[in-house]
Design goal:
Layout: H1 3-9, H2 15-23, E1 27-29, E2 32-33, E3 48-50, E4 53-55, E5 62-67, E6 96-97, E7 106-112, H3 115-122, E8 130-137, H4 142-150, E9 167-173, H5 186-192, E10 194-201, H6 208-215, E11 219-228, E12 231-232, E13 242-244, H7 247-254
Parallel strand pairs: 7-11
Antiparallel strand pairs: 1-2, 1-3, 3-4, 5-7, 5-13, 6-7, 8-10, 8-11, 9-10, 11-12
This protein binds uracil.
Uracil (URA) binds at residues 101-102, 105, 207-210, 223.
Amino acid sequence: MRLDRFLSEIGIGTRKNIKQLIKAGRISVNGEIAKSSDMKIDEKTAVVTFDGKPLQYREYEYYMLHKPAGVVSATEDRAHKTVIDLITETKRKDLFPVGRLDIDTEGLLLITNDGDMAHRLLAPEKHVDKCYMAYIRGELTGEDIRRFETGIDIGEDGEEQMTAPAALRVIRSLTPDNDNNNDNDDDNDNDACLQEVEVTIHEGKYHQIKRMFAALGKEVVYLKRLSMGSLRLDEKLLKGEYRRLTDEEINNLKK
Ligand code: URA
């Protein structure tokens, strides 16, 4: 790997800054002051230092992002900011999001360049749990909970597409109790009802949660992913913020 790419990928600065640092003799490779940005190094074994301090090259990087609404889960997009644009501390070109959240969905998104890990987390046969918090318009019934448990047909255009069993838990109702208003307008009361729920699915079909509720005649008005497998969203991260995973989080995901 070229020295300037190595330095850029670990976030030392822009190519221009890096050129200046090398010119100023502040970068050494295996004990020798580096002379040019295009020198080739073995990124796995070279001891590269910046002002005498060793720099560590990581083959794989793992970031937890608190995805905000309005950014797309893609590596490039013509119209919108992507989740990769939010990871500013590294200039690595090989990062990608593990799975997709809709543009209006918030919450946990793992960003990495570890293709094997992504495959293990996303492969349908691995049944990795994904837990979401949602606000649902429409009153949920015991029958709705049972239908989540047995699987729901979310197919379109007459084609059946059954989901695997999922878990739905109503956390609380966010609507004031209107039962005493005697307006006998049950339909409107039902539509006005907003409930906070927790949903756990073990697969990742396109728009799965929204389509599961739509099949029950209910609407998802807000959706946030809380966890994926062993990885839980760090609530200290504000929307749009990210951090590296800890070694423990990485090891747990690899188990
Ligand atoms: N299900 C959805 O409908 N949307 C998401 O973003 C994630 C799961």
